[in-house]
Structures are given as C-alpha cells and as structure tokens.
Amino acid sequence: MSRINPDRPCPHETFGVTAEINRIVANESAPESAPVAFSADIKVRCEDCGEPFRWIGLQAGMNPRRPMVSLDETELRAPLRPASADPDFGLGIPGFAIGYRPGPPAT
C-alpha cells in the first residue's frame, strides 16, 4: 500500500540504490585477462513515488580520472581501483565528455 498522498508532493523518505560495478579488460575475447580499470555506475530513486534523483555539479560523460554523470544526470559514473593498486591504475582507458556551447542569439 502506497504512503503517498496524490494531493501533496512526495517527501522522498525511502530510497532505492542500484550500483553496477564494471570490470574493464583490454581484450573482451579473453575474459580471463586482468582488468585494466573498474567503474561504478550508481542510480538513486525514491521508492515511494519512483522519481529518479539527479547528481549535481558533474559534467556528462565518462572519464577514468574523475566521476561524471550520464546525459540525464541520473547515473553517477565513478572510476575506482582496488586499495592495493597503483594510483595510476585505470588511467590509460579512453573517456569522453559532453559539452554545451550556446549558439548565436535568435534574430
């Protein structure tokens, strides 16, 4: 039974989290090969109303050096490494960024 009153905004009191850990290998045809990087994809939603939450203040894309978000900002894409790995672990994989450049003003 839903605790939501349709006449009032949802107070967002109960959360669901989905985390997917990606093991990135250099050669996908050799699954036993050692990973060259790891990444966590994390989504949060309100369990009561189903509304997704958006991550604030991060650029859209994927980067092995810093967290980024999906284009709709609902998925955090965060690189990670084992605690025993060198600090440069995973930095050799490519990434991408989505930028915005405003066009000329409408006439």
Describe the structure concisely.
By secondary structure, this protein is mainly β.
Keywords summarizing the entry:
mainly beta, 107 residues, flat, 6 strands, 35% strand, two-stranded antiparallel ribbon, single chain
Question: What would you note in describing this structure?
Answer:
The protein has 107 residues and is mostly beta strands. The protein has a domain at 15-86. The protein contains no helices and 6 strands. It has a 4-stranded antiparallel sheet, with no helix packed on it. A two-stranded antiparallel ribbon has the order 3-6. A hairpin with a 5-residue loop joins strand 4 (68-69) and strand 5. The model has no long low-confidence stretch (mean pLDDT 88).
Describe the secondary structure blueprint for this structure:
Layout: E1 15-25, E2 35-46, E3 60-62, E4 68-69, E5 75-80, E6 96-98
Antiparallel strand pairs: 1-2, 2-5, 3-6, 4-5
Main sheet? Answer: 4 strands, antiparallel
Q: What separation lies between the terminal Cα atoms?
A: 54 Å
Strand order of the largest sheet: 1-2-5-4
Report the principal-axis shape: flat
User: Structural class of the helix and strand makeup?
Assistant: mainly beta
| Helix count from the secondary structure assignment | 0
What share of the residues does DSSP label as strand, in percent? Answer: 25-35%
- Report the strand count: 6
Helix content: under 10%
Q: In sequence order, what are the helices and strands, one letter per element?
A: EEEEEE
